[in-house]
Amino acid sequence: MRHDSPEPAYDVPPDRTAVECRHCGRPFDSEFLLALHRGRSHPDAVDDDERQAYEEAYDAETSRLGRFRLKAVALLVLLYFGFLMVYAVV
Amino acid sequence: MDRRRRSIRRSVRRTLPAGVTALTLAALARPVLAHGGSLGGAARESLSVPTWLMLATGGAVVGASFLLASFVTDRSALDWLVERRRPVGLPGERTLRWAVGALGVVGLVGVVVTGFVGPTDPLSNPAVVIVWAGWWAGFAMSTYLVGNAWPALNPWRTIGAALPDLGRRYRWRFGAWPSVAGLLVLVWVEVVSPLADEPRVLALTVVAYSVVTLAGTVVYGPDTWFGAVDPVARVFRYYGAVAPVGRDADGSLALRFPGARLSTDLLDGVDEAAFVVALLWVTTFDGFVATPAWRDLARGLVGLGFPPILLYPGAMVAGFALFFGVYLLAARLSRRTAPTFVASATLARRFAPPLLAIAAGYHVAHFLGYFLSLTPALAAAVTAPLATVDPPLLVVPGWFGGVAIAGVLGGHLLGILAAHTTAFDLFPGRLQAIRSQYPFIAVMIFYTMASLWIVTRPDVPLPYLP
User: Fold this and answer.
1) Host domain of residue A24
2) Which residue of B260, B280, B302, B315 could cross-link B256, Cys pair, CB 3.0 to 4.6 Å?
3) In B385-426, which ranges are continuous DSSP H helix?
């Protein structure tokens, strides 16, 4: 009972190239994200190469997440003590 | 005179500063102002922290909550939070529904009758007290703290069901825009007219709303009207998405984690996201028009030949356009920060529901103390509807400010966690999901700082109102 024309779920700008998932056709910005998508959304349909690509991408992302968390902790500490000192001065 | 006349609404506006101010201070474990949550305007005067620091702290609280949420990257844990259910059985659901519906109709008739013939003192008049304390404060809180019972209570739905239904087709391409406009109009009327203080005006407004609503249900049918057009039903339905009790797709009642529905695909389009943003904006508007900045701007505009009658509608629409424009910009930027090719319209639709938790948090901070302080008036209104009783205001204890803090803080935490879960549902990459939220977190920080700025301004009488 809704809008007559459902909005497109994906929108690739003309100046960009997308890699498409061969199982569902969704466009992704990089092979890396596509590999993650295949492993997560089509775990039963992937072949051995795709499974390996997924595991490698997942591990690479895990180490990137580790670095992100370090930065997040540093920022939280900075925020906390920064505000503590500002409140002490003001 | 002005203060007295607007007594009920003034007290509402003054509770927000206490809640939000206290939040920013509590974030740094400084209990200095924790006493400021009651009806009094003490919070503003006793505030010794400079405005810029308060704004920065408010923004930092939101940002820090996001950083903390970003540590949760386990998809199965997030799925568990969203999908956990416990079925709730309601004994005698049909009878209960009928009784609640009857109560709604009796309430509506009572409000109209006592509004026209009851005492003119607002605190003694049942219409004023029931509408503002009972319905807009108390019932609205129940919709997001417990569950949305409005479809059962809604008297216009009950009456509309008994009226003929012409079954005219609604133009779905209008989507939710009529209800966005309806919400802006209702709040505009609330701000520029003495709705909270003059029972006759309130009763007239209720009658006008009833005529429009019942006409709508006759032309389009109750389901279409309350599902698509009526702003009040939409407000409560959206608030209900925050609540722990709600109906699943199959119609059965279930208990879930508060806010769990906010990360599901709740909205149908950008128009419904616009309604969520409008809901946040109208709370801000109510405070904004009482600031000196607005008074000066209004005088300047009128000096330039702007018609005074268009001042408030103009500000209402312009402010909403700003809030919504910033939100749409965030949805576009999110495509770049993630990066993703998901359409920005889809992102705007999926990331809007988490804002509802923030709106609910502000509503608690606004109205919980207000509701409790008016409970004696509410009791008097129901037991002695036609007597001028001058009921006492319940004095809310000092520690109550902490509850307002918990409301705002809890709303923000729920909202940020819901946005986080939404991102993990949308994107295959975990880091991509975190990065997609950057613009939306920036928007939340902007909304928070905008409301904080407004509540730190001195409260002045509204300019250019009769």
Assistant:
1) 19-89
2) B260
3) 401-426
Whether residue B57 and residue A83 make contact (CB cut-off 8 A), yes or no, is yes
- pTM comes to 0.89
Query: Do the Cβ atoms of B11 and B370 come closer than 8 Å?
Result: yes
Of the candidates A4, A9, A84, the beta carbon closest to that of B172 is on: A4
Q: Is residue A4 part of a domain?
A: no
- Give the best residue of B32, B65, B67 to mutate against chain A (max A CB count within 10 A): B67
ipTM value of the model?
Answer: 0.91
| Number of compact structural domains in chain A | 1
B360 phi-psi bin (left φ>0, alpha ψ -120 to 50, beta other): alpha
- First-to-last CA distance in chain B? 13
Please report, for chain B, the start and end positions of each structural domain, with discontinuous segments joined by +.
Answer: 2-278+353-432
Instruction: Report the gap between the CA of A48 and the closest CA in chain B (Å).
Output: 19
Domain assignment present for residue A55? The answer is yes
- Here the tokens at position A19 are 């890699």
Q: Is A52 on the interface with B (CB under 8 A)?
A: no
The distance of B173 to chain A (nearest Cα, Å) reads: 5
Residue pair B352/A21 in contact (Cβ under 8 Å)? The answer is no
Rounded distance, CA B179 to CA B230, Å? 6
Report yes or no: B396 and B38 within 8 Å, Cβ to Cβ: yes
Please answer whether residues B175 and B125 qualify as being in contact, where contact means their C-beta atoms are separated by less than 8 angstroms. Answer: no
d(CA A87, nearest CA chain B) in Å: 8
Q: Is B70 helix (H, G, I), strand (E, B) or coil?
A: coil
Assess contact for B335 and B260: CB atoms under 8 A. Answer: no
Residue B7's contacts (CB-CB under 8 Å, 6 or more residues apart) are: B122, B123, B197
Decide if B313 contacts B188 (C-beta within 8 A): yes
